[in-house]
Amino acid sequence: MSSHLEDVWRKEREEKERDATDILIGLDLGQAKDYTAITIIKRFREKRPVEYQLQHLERMKGIPYPDQVARVAEIIKSPKLTGYRIFLIVDQTGVGRPVMDMLRASRLGIPIIAIMIHGGDAVGQEGQEYRVPKRDLVGVLQVLFQNKRFQVIRTIPNAELLIQELMNFKVKINLATAHDSYEALREGDHDDLVLSAAIACWWGEKNPPVDFSQIQGVGRRPLGQSSNDQVEIVGDGVGWGSAGNGLDFTGY
């Protein structure tokens, strides 16, 4: 009897968590010689302010786009995500509309949001497609880290690499125009993991979990100030999650 009651309580807890949690999937599509990165993040809607927890990181390289799309579909249709509200946020900067068309043709049954990254200052929106300055994406992730609103589960593969990518970002200031740009610290450094997480968190912050009947408009959040010219993570560096091991999608 006690075992049965424990099963019932466990299922109730799981259902309650699903009702209060969104899954944000960030997809940074790499070109032929670049990595494609998939980031899966839980957004806890009932937290005030909203909090995020990294659940899964995955990279692939040299894989045809149809196979990458199939992999994304596998993850979304995994039983581990059953019952969650899922949003797919895609960086379409390098590959354009063809891969986005493949994703939409896959009939995933979830909202698919396209992000075009640029080096300007203004955010633009047309339907579910956004044009976003890179500084805004990096800035949102930085602010979440600094305010301990983004947790990383230490045991996730590539978690340390994500943090290293974020710390390797530097800001370049054009003294003539006062324009700032963001790039990896050294030539050859990658930024696919951090961008896949950043686009998901940026969209999560700009579209508060209030009304799920429509995707809301977008605002602009300024980058947190730092005396350093490199993205700074304060305190112990990372808000490491203490519970669980993330979501393992091996075999899905």
Structure characterization notes:
This protein has 252 residues and is α/β, with parallel strands linked by helices. The chain has one domain (17-241): Nucleotidyltransferase, domain 5 (2-Layer Sandwich). It has 6 helices and 11 strands. Strands 6-7-5-4-1-2-3-8-11 form a 9-stranded mixed beta sheet, sandwiched between helices. Strands 9-10 form a two-stranded antiparallel sheet. A hairpin with a 6-residue loop joins β1 and β2 (35-44). α4 (134-146) packs across α6 (192-206).
* Structural class label: alpha/beta
End-to-end CA span: 34 Å
Compute the gyration radius: what is it?
18 Å
At CATH level 3, the topology is Nucleotidyltransferase, domain 5
Give helix and strand order, one letter per element, not per position. HEEEHEHEEEHEHEEHE
In total, how many beta strands? 11
What quaternary form is this? single chain
The amount of beta strand, in percent, is 25-35%
What's the CATH class, please? Alpha Beta
From the spread of the alpha carbons, the general shape counts as globular
Tally of discrete structural domains: 1
Q: What's the CATH architecture name? A: 2-Layer Sandwich
Which percent bin holds the helix content? 25-40%
Low-pLDDT stretches: 172-179, 210-244
The largest pleated sheet is described as: 9 strands, mixed
Helix segment tally: 6
Strand order of the largest sheet: 6-7-5-4-1-2-3-8-11
Mean pLDDT: 75
